[in-house]
């Protein structure tokens, strides 16, 4: 009887020791660090021309439900979207596109003034939009895919409601060279730079004829 009690006590002691060891091991595990990425490229040079006499406000763009997150999304095959858990953008796609578009419009000096979406100052024209695609197309080299639907709205028709002067969709694909978040960030920066230049050119053309 005493032998059975002793054996049971030893067994329970070993089990308790193992549980404590596992618990201590878990406590000592270092949490995985998240990595954050952003779009980065040089702003355009100022345009050597008289600015157009308009104040343009750029609203914060909305983001498609598929990409309305700061996690980096990639596509391996049709009808699927996956996310990197520990690799994220510094902001949501709509926020990134709106910010860099506003910055570039302002840097060129093409208009009398460019207002960020938070501004309460009066404006003559408003740019709104939706980021429809913002992801890494997986493959041998990978591609950054960026697509935006944009509207240019006339805000000068006081009492008559706003009027859409232009509505256009833009889609760009830029090879990343490296499949992964770092390659995507570089390629997406190139895509954003091209997108910004195209939108600026289109808006300028429309407003030059007003």
The run of helices and strands is HEEEEEHEEEEH
Mean pLDDT: 87
Q: Work out the helix count.
A: 3
Give the overall shape, derived from the CA principal axes: elongated
Named at the architecture level, the CATH assignment of the largest domain is 3-Layer(aba) Sandwich
Beta percentage is 25-35%
The total strand number stands at 9
CATH fold annotation of the largest domain: Rossmann fold
SSE inventory with pairings:
Elements: H1 2-28, E1 35-37, E2 52-58, E3 62-63, E4 71-75, E5 82-89, H2 93-108, E6 111-115, E7 125-137, E8 143-154, E9 163-175, H3 181-208
Parallel strand pairs: 1-5, 2-6, 2-7, 3-7, 4-7
Antiparallel strand pairs: 4-5, 7-8, 8-9
Helix pairs in contact: 2-3
Describe this structure in words.
The protein has two domains: 30 residues; 172 residues, Rossmann fold (3-Layer(aba) Sandwich). Helices cover 34% and strands 32% of the residues. The longest helix has 28 residues. Strands 1, 2, 3, 4, 5, 6, 7, 8 and 9 form a nine-stranded mixed beta sheet that branches. The chain is α/β, with parallel strands linked by helices and 210 residues long. It starts with a helix and ends with a helix. Strand 4 and strand 5 form a beta hairpin. The protein contains three helices and nine strands.
Give a brief outline of the structure.
The chain has 210 residues and is of the alpha/beta class.
Characteristic key phrases:
about 210 residues; alpha/beta; Rossmann fold; nine-stranded mixed β-sheet; 9 strands
């Amino acid at each position: 009887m005493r032998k059975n009690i002793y054996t049971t006590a030893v067994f329970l002691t070993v089990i308790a020791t193992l549980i404590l060891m596992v618990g201590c091991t878990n406590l000592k595990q270092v949490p995985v660090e998240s990595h954050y990425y952003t779009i980065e490229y040089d702003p355009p040079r100022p345009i050597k021309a008289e600015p157009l006499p308009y104040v343009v406000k750029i609203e914060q763009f909305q983001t498609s439900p598929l990409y309305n997150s700061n996690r980096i999304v990639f596509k391996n095959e049709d009808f699927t979207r996956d996310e990197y858990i520990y690799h994220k953008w510094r902001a949501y796609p709509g926020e990134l596109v709106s910010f860099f578009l506003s910055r570039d419009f302002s840097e060129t000096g093409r208009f009398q003034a460019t207002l960020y979406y938070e501004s309460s100052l009066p404006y003559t024209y408003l740019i709104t939009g939706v980021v429809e695609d913002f992801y890494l197309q997986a493959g041998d080299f990978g591609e950054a895919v960026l697509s935006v639907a944009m509207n240019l709205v006339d805000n000068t028709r006081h009492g008559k409601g706003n009027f859409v002067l232009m509505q256009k969709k833009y889609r760009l694909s830029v090879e990343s060279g490296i499949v992964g978040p770092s390659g995507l960030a570089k390629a997406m920066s190139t895509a954003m730079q091209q997108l910004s230049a195209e939108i600026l050119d289109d808006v300028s053309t429309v407003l030059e004829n007003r």
